[in-house]
Design brief:
Arc Repressor Mutant, subunit A; elongated; DNA-binding; mainly alpha; homodimer; 9 helices
DNA sequence: TTATTTTCTGGACAAATTGTCTAATTTTGG
DNA sequence: CCAAAATTAGACAATTTGTCCAGAAAATAA
């Protein structure tokens, strides 16, 4: 049963992904060729096609798993931090971003539909989930997916600004800013009556 | 002086750009070939290279101008609407988005570094500009570029949600939501003392 | 260890794309 | 009408892509 355990497979796949990530730091995704990847990985080009259908497949097979891991870390952070009624624990979100700075900057820069949108959607889903459990019972006067999109966009913008500006201030500070910018509005809409605006359609 | 007026040039360039936009609605930017563009435009492939260096050049020469035009419309809207103290004129922003729905959806979808980032940066600059004139004199307790990034991200998220969900509510409604979500936070930070948070560094 | 299975390799292949270049053909503006 | 400019089809070498093969190399099993 030593089929999937073959060291050569692990070694080759890791070499290919490492090479890919290295190239991704220099060039645009679309500008990277399979030849370059195999070259940088010190692996025959035919070997590449032995493991992956194409460039997208390599990305999907690896980044996807990476995101799963990151998402796993983000999920509990989001739930307990973003909308906690009293304390500001949003700090841990910015700390998470700082820890994986390279990864997130890569996502922001190479973005496109591949990584950026994927992360945005994932965050929006997580947030919507969290909001739903918070509201549980009384329904929100405003579409939850809309609120989730707003929160995602706002938080992402803050994190992006922070990372792209080389983290000129502490995670605590950023969390406090996020707190002051976002919470009042969220409380405002939470207090709205269901019929606060009748012209919706 | 009949050099730039040559109808053939105008006709060819328009045909090429129209073909490009048409293809952009079906396929990803990177998947579109010069051959396809020339084909769709009913123009020789050599003619394409007579006008543009490559695909990026075609995009830069046209979309850029288009953005200039859009930006020109957005500028006054932003200034008078987003941060007007009393009335909600943010409606015109959503109306603008609705008018150019196809264009903005294209930007959101094809995004990448090419269009999306460009628009984001432009908006952030415009907003920062506006904020600076608003604050004029007393300096902001929070980095203006940070506030501008937040506003850009938040507004973009709302517009994106609205367009991607086929505008399920009126522009008025969206403007009201934006108002309730964003303004309280902005007023909150505007009231902060310069030393409200000492751990910035 | 030896035998067997799997993976890796370099090379070759057709197809598609790119950017450049010609030499003819058409259209425009004067 | 004529000269200038734009367009055209086609050819061209250079890359890239995805597939295939036969042999070398390495891992696993007995």
């Amino acid at each position: 049963m030593g089929r999937k355990t073959d060291r050569r497979i692990q070694r080759t796949r890791k070499a290919l992904f490492d090479a890919f990530m290295a190239l991704l730091l220099e060039k645009e995704y679309e500008a990277i060729t399979v030849t370059e990847i195999a070259d940088q990985a010190n692996v025959g080009r035919a070997t590449f096609y032995l493991h992956y259908r194409d460039k997208d497949d390599l990305l999907a097979s690896n980044i996807e798993a990476l995101f799963e891991e990151v998402a796993g870390r983000i999920r509990p952070l989001l739930k307990q931090s973003i909308l906690a009624r009293d304390t500001i624990q949003g700090r841990i979100l910015f700390e998470e971003a700082a820890r994986n700075k390279d990864l997130y900057l890569l996502v922001f820069r190479q973005g496109g539909t591949l990584l950026y949108d994927r992360l945005q959607r994932h965050m929006a889903d997580l947030i919507a989930e969290t909001l739903e459990t918070l509201i549980m019972g009384g329904d929100s006067p405003i579409e939850i997916s809309l609120l989730a999109s707003y929160l995602t966009g706002a938080l992402t913008a803050l994190v992006k600004w922070w990372l792209e500006n080389d983290m000129p201030c502490s995670a605590d500070y950023m969390a406090a800013v996020a707190q002051h910018l976002i919470r009042p509005g969220m409380e405002q809409v939470a207090l709205l009556e269901s019929d606060w605006y009748t012209q919706k359609e």
